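Z., the sequence and structure:
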Amino acid sequence: MLGLQFDTETSWVEVAKNGLEQLLTDHAFAEQKAASNAVSIIINYSEETALVKDMSDIAIEEMEHFRMVHNIMVERGMVLGQGTKNDYALKLQKFFPHTKNRTEALIHRLLVAALIEARSCERFKVFADNMEDEKLSKFYLDLMVSEANHYTLFLKYAREYMNRDIVDEKWENLLAFEAKMMRERGKTAKVHG
């Protein structure tokens, strides 16, 4: 369904479980960054009414997810640590060449956001399916549905703003790039690590 070209290995789950506080901290900051991205799209494409409405909903939902992750941390006696750079997202953002064409720049942002959401969805499912902690498993399965909805929404908008064949070619190239990148990951307790 997600179209990802590389499946997360279950060995990453052990890394994530062993570094749960780091994983939750990384996840909390990833939710903040997702909210910020949605707000940034609103600021830069404010004339796109339907897009603004949907990005507003996503920004609010992502901040609610941040709060939920933070609450889990507090309940478990954890403290939200310092955020770190998300090298996964940064590498994806650099995949497309810089363009001064506003529409093309939007397409690139939407495709990168779609892929981040798709990978998060996949990771949440793998994590939830391979853990003994029932409460955390349910939490991540619930979030997985939200990530899948965001993924489809970002991809839908990308296909609306530009010829679908062009967008789909860009999407396939980005998926291939991400799959290569993911083969080297799975060693850190981060959502995309």
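The radius of gyration is 16 Å. The chain has a mean pLDDT of 95.

Let me know what you think.
H.
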